[in-house]
Design brief:
With 146 residues, this protein is mostly helical. The chain has one domain.
Length: 146
């Protein structure tokens, strides 16, 4: 073989070795990056599972208080309908001192509009109470639990 051919062959061999070396370095760096990505993925999966648990707790709280609110409002509507239909009565507690001069007064009754407003206010109070208790439960079980 001629020297020129040997030189070309040696140059090609060196280039192939350099090329393989660069490929090996690139593969090694890729594996290092892949290890970092796997670690990040594991952290993201753990965080996602934690959020799923929190979301389920929030759904449970919401379901519980929605059912309680629905039941309380239905009970309030039932009471209102009973009063309107004459099945039940709205009892008022009156201070005896305020009625001392009204010996001949008849039974105290609310007007229809006042009665309706009473039940509307009661419905609002039920809603607000339920919302406050649900928010307290959310803060205690979700916000402060972490």
């Amino acid at each position: 073989m001629s020297n020129r051919f040997k030189l070309i062959l040696a140059s090609v061999a060196i280039l192939i070795l350099l090329f393989l070396g660069f490929i090996w370095i690139d593969i090694r760096n890729t594996y290092i990056e892949l290890g970092g990505i796997k670690t990040e993925l594991s952290q993201i999966k753990a965080e996602f599972k934690r959020y799923q648990v929190l979301a389920q707790k929030v759904r449970d709280i919401d379901d519980k208080f929605t059912q309680e609110l629905t039941h309380a409002k239905a009970e309030n509507n039932k009471l209102y309908n009973n009063v309107i239909n004459g099945i039940g009565r709205l009892q008022l507690n009156i201070n005896k001192a305020a009625t001392a001069n009204l010996d001949d007064a008849k039974t105290c009754e609310l007007t229809g509009e006042t009665r309706q407003n009473y039940y509307l206010l009661r419905d609002d109070i039920i809603t607000k109470d339920n919302m406050i208790v649900a928010l307290q439960k959310y803060i205690t079980n979700i916000c402060l639990a972490n």
